[in-house]
Amino acid sequence: MAEAHQAVAFQFTVSPDGIDLHLSHQALTEIYLSGVRSWKKRVIGLKNSVVTGVYPASLSSWLFVVIAILATMYTRSDPSMGLIAKIQEHLPRPYVMLSASLCAVPDAWCRAVLFSTMLWLLLIFTMRMCLKQLLSYHRWMFEKHGKMSNTTKVWALVRIFSGRKPLLYSYQGSLPNLPVPLIKDTVNRHLESVRPLMDDTEYERMTSLSEDFESGLGKRLQWYLKLKALWATNYVSDWWEEYVYLRGRSPIMVNSNYYGMDFMYVTPTPIQAARAGNSIHAYFLYRRKLNKEELKPTRIPGTVIPLCSAQCERMFNTTRIPGEETDTVQHWQDSDYIAVYHRGRYFRLRMYHAGRLLSPREIESQIQKILDDPSPPSKGEAKLGALTAGDRIPWAKARAKYFSSGVNKRSLDFIEKAAFFVTLDDDEQGGVADDPTRIDSYAKSLLHGKCYDRWFDKSFSVVYFKNGKMGLNGEHSWADAPVLSHAWQYVLTTDCFQLGYNAEGHCKGEVDSSLPGPQKLNWEIPPECEEQISGSLAVAQALADDVDVHVFSFEEFGKGKIKKCRVSPDAFIQLTLQLAHYRNQGRFCLTYEASMTRLFKEGRTETVRSCTNESCAFVRALEGGEDADVCRRLFHEASEKHQQLYRMAMTGAGIDRHLFCLYVVSKYLQVESPFLKEVLSEPWRLSTSQTPLQVEMFDLVNHPEYVSCGGGFGPVADDGYGVSYCALGEKMLSFHITCKHSCPNTDANTFGGEIRKALRDLLQLLSPEQAEPRKAAAQRPELKKDL
């Protein structure tokens, strides 16, 4: 196993004969190749900046404009209407003398090229402004299917201005800024959202608070917020990142981080090191595409409308750094290695050798060396990761005191500057058909592990289990789950369908015998720091033990049958959750559904308040035994209302982000608002989110077994539920439910049962002919393999 001193490029000794200098040729070569790779990345970045800067035009279009102008001049006509001659008058004198001296290039040609360039830049500016205006139009989302207005038909010209073969960030300069809603509209929407949750007396009091705020302090706060919107790219995102994520002082494990799962029915190889070899290699292939901006911009499904890609920038080489008052997100431009944890020890594993990325077989070999290494952890090293799982202030103080210099700082830098973090877990995880609780254990392991065997501050950590299963844990502050989900699904498909394994289950390819081995990191942990580690571990362990998780796949029907009922699958599931929660708790509650605002520059999320007057009326009617026709009518009204709220949230007309920013402004101005204080303290007892599935990556028709179970997150409220769901193809749904054991009124398994029953009841209500008897577990025996 390579030690730290082997990475030093030179050593010297002092003797009576003088200084004896020893140069390491291998280390110097690696430094040189690393520099070459870094410069290549800069050149590619510069080239992409130019290509993106002129989009939706192309660099070749400049040549076309120049040739067109010169060709027109050749016919002895002046396409510039005298501007080319004017250019001559305003050119600096030295330039005129230089042009006259160039016999091969007539002076008129130089002026024509300059005019052509100016015309080309003007055309680009015009096209970008047109594209920005077209992307600012969102009324098409609110029009009924098949009924398109004339304005929307004209708006369809966005296809003409959207260009060809865009890079990842080509649309960034054309995306509109997030608009600030009218304060009157936001207040009225909030009142409507809380009406089903309040009695008449409470609602009258809230109405009075709202009116006082709208006519008084709200106007002042709104003025400051509009001022920020004029100055900043996005009036929400920076404050959202800082105050919702980075200033939180409680553990980010469970409370903020989330997880993603492997394939549900397939384990491509049972060899832990081989699975790591392929998927780590796939991650670096994805990073290469990301750096070269070769990934296609994400779009609204079925349209050419692009979404903001700014969150992709900090996916790799990123770490959350703890602070006493607030954390920070630190991103490095490049990193050529990963950090690996195994049995209490940390390793640095370089991913490049001789200027090339290691092959999957070489990575497997390196991972196997770590698995076979018998060395024990250093004193205090084994549970060091618990510092990232506990409260943030103790971790910030310990980092400043014990990890700011010497060997501890060097080793910590290796972890924090790594491309990402890898855990080699000795446990076997995954579910089997006859033991569904195994998948619950799998989810809990990904959510928090042993509380010390993950580095929760890294942008993401990949976990490899002993039986070949894998999963990930993502830190939330730098980006939202769909961004990391895209990379995860790319890795899953590349692992199985492009890289593959040989007959023995090992990665394909050969191993270069000259590869240096992994470098074990060294630590000097004092007893005082060990006490702090133990304290953080105790806090994290108590939190982990309190989490109740239940994961299940619903195979009786999927979004295919739901769409045949002419209902949005998302609205169907949200109403299912409302019905299930009412049956479980006997009441309605404030419900959070995450929606994205990436139609706007640097957009992140907005809240859809899914518990509405319409949804409550439907649930009461169904539970009260009303006629089926009445229930169907109320269901469709509730579904339409939910779709309307979702569209409004996507287009910047939500409730919660606007009120949140007004609250932040009030804190800066040091003024108190009873209305905002009450709104921001409302508990979200049902927090939900849909995991997107990149349908172009998975062929679920021909390979239905290659489907991921999605991912999940911890409960937001101590007495509530967290629910993540995903439509897996056309015939299956998956649900991840979390709550806390310490609350006597919540139970993840019980709530899961209510969701199953509600799904069947709603399909039976909407389409009795489509509702089928409950399928047995053996319905699809070809998929019921060992998970």
TrEMBL record:
Major location category of this protein: mitochondrion
Bilayer topology annotation: Multi-pass membrane protein
DNA-binding keyword on record: no
Domain (Carnitine O-palmitoyltransferase N-terminal) ranges: 1-46
Gene Ontology terms, MF aspect: carnitine O-palmitoyltransferase activity
Residue ranges of every copy of the Choline/carnitine acyltransferase domain listed in the record: 178-756
Pathway: Lipid metabolism; fatty acid beta-oxidation
CC terms in the record's Gene Ontology section: mitochondrial outer membrane
Superkingdom: Eukaryota
Protein name: carnitine O-palmitoyltransferase
